[in-house]
Amino acid sequence: xMVTVPVSPDxxxxxxxxxxxxxxxxxxxxxxxxxAVRAMPKADLDPPVSPPGTVHNSVSTAVFDDLYREPREWMxxxxxxxxxxxxxxxxxxxxxxxxxxxTRDEQGRLYKPSFLVSAVSDEGYIDLVSTIDxxxxxxxxxxxxxxxTVRDVADLAAPVAVAVAVRGSLTDTPLEVALxxxxxxxxxxxxxxxxxxxWLTVVSDEMAERVGGADRxxxxxxxxxxxxxxxxxxxxxxxxxxxxxxxxxxNRLFELLAPVLPPGRPEMTQWRFPAVGEPAVPVTLPNVxxxxxxREIAG
Length: 299
Description:
By secondary structure, the chain is of the alpha+beta class. 30% of the residues lie in helices and 24% in strands. It has ten helices and twelve strands. It has helices at residues 11-29, 31-39, 80-89, 134-137, 140-154, 174-178, 205-210, 213-219, 247-257, 295-298, and strands at residues 2-6, 55-64, 71-76, 96-104, 110-122, 125-130, 161-163, 200-203, 225-228, 234-237, 269-272, 281-284. A hairpin with a 2-residue loop joins strand 5 and strand 6 (125-130). Helix 1 packs antiparallel against helix 5. The two termini are 33 Å apart. The model has no long low-confidence stretch (mean pLDDT 92). The strands form three sheets. Strands 3-2-4-5-6-1-7 form a seven-stranded antiparallel sheet, covered by helices on one side. 34% of the residues are buried. The longest helix is centred in the N-terminal third of the chain and has 19 residues, at 11-29.
C-alpha cells in the first residue's frame, strides 16, 4: 500500500501525515507477526547466531548531505526506546525512514514472515509505504482498517497518489506499472494526471472539476463513497469490499476519469524474467486497470 503526499505548500502537514503513518500502520496492518515482533525482548531480535526462524529487524532513518549525497544514517534494533527515537526523528522530513522485520528461512534467506513501513522523500514528495498482513487483507475488519489508515493520513495532507495493491511497488502505482512508466514521469506535474485509480481512488479538487465535479462523481453510480477530504481532494471508494472490484468497475472508472488519466494503453499481461539466465514469461499483473487509452474518449 502506498500514499504519496506533497511536502509543500504545508511542510508541517506532511510531517504530521508521515508520523501518523508510522504510528498507525504497525498496529493496524502488520497482523500477528508484527505484534509478536513488537513484544519480543530486544535480545531476541538480531542475535549473533541466527538459525532458521530468527527475526531480523530495524528502525532507521537516513538524511543525505546536499552536496555529496553522503548519508547520515541512524539504525537500531526495535525496542520501545528506539521506536520513540524514530518518531522523534520524524519531526523533520528525512530522505528515508523505515521499520521492518524479516525472518530467516531454511535456505538462510531473510524472507517471510515479514513487514515494512517506510517513508522516502524525493522531489518534493513523500512516498509512504506499508505492507499488509495477509490475514488483515483477507478479513472484512482488516479492509476497514486499511481504509481507515489511508483516510486518517489523507485527511492530514491531501495525497497526490494512493495505491492499495497486491504486491505493490515501493514507488510506482499499479497504473504506472501497467503503462511501463515510473512515478518519475509524473511527479513534476501531479495536478495534470491521475497516477492511479482502483478500489480506492483519491483525486484533487482540480481533477474532480475536470471530470465534472463532485455531483457527477456521486451521480455516476461508480462509487459507494464520494467524500471530501479535510486537507482537500476527494475520497472515491468503488466497492464496499476489495473482492467486489474487478474489470467491470475498472472500465466504469476509466470512462469517468479519462480526462485526467495519463495517455497510453495499459498492458495487464507483461513479459518478465523469472530468474537470471531464464527466458521471459508472460505474467498477468494482479491489480486491475482498464486496458484502454484515455485518448480514445478524450479524442
